[in-house]
Design brief:
Layout (H helix, E strand, L loop, with lengths): L8 H17 L6 E7 L6 E11 L2 E6 L6 H8 L2 E6 L2 E9 L3 H13 L4 H10 L5 H14 L1 E7 L6
Antiparallel strand pairs: 1-2, 1-4, 2-3, 3-6, 4-5, 5-6
């Protein structure tokens, strides 16, 4: 059975409520990042786990809810964020991809790079048995329907 709630904001908030504390306490699994953004209305720090694929000093992530994604709206208002990768934390800056060549390369990377936690993520998000083909299809759909961003990491580790 497909998850009928996958694109609802409350389902994502519920997932964040359970996953973010786990990711805060331990090292992040490969292929994921914990973003801390400043709330555009409240000014409070908001932390969200996202699937993020790293190349050099850039992470590529997709806001799955597109224009309804709170972390994306917050990052648009204040693009300076903090990112936890593994057990390290970085200062970073979010930017939307406008160059078609970079967008295509990032989308290809996001779809084809499968990490072990993707199997757990797929099962929880889609309520189905994960296979590599199904995960790639899901990632292709996320890229097509979401908003892809680049997160440029500062070259020096912040903490």
């Amino acid at each position: 059975m497909a998850n009928p709630f996958a694109l609802s904001r409350w389902f994502h908030r519920l997932g964040n409520a359970f996953i973010a504390p786990l990711f805060r306490l331990g090292p992040m699994p490969a292929g994921f990042a914990l973003l801390t953004v400043t709330g555009r209305k409240t000014g409070r720090l908001r932390t969200r786990p996202v699937r993020a694929i790293r190349r050099d000093d850039t992470l590529y992530a997709v806001a799955l809810l597109g224009e309804r994604s709170d972390w994306l709206l917050n990052a648009r208002a204040k693009p300076e964020i903090t990112v936890k990768l593994g057990s390290r934390q970085f200062e970073a800056r979010v930017r939307e991809l406008s160059d078609p060549a970079e967008l295509d390369a990032a989308a290809d990377l996001f779809v084809r790079e499968i990490v072990p936690f993707d199997y757990v993520d797929y099962a929880g998000y889609h309520w189905g048995f994960p296979t590599r083909r199904k995960i790639e299809e899901a990632h292709r759909k996320w890229v097509a329907e979401g908003v892809m961003v680049a997160i440029d990491l500062e070259t020096t580790e912040s903490r």
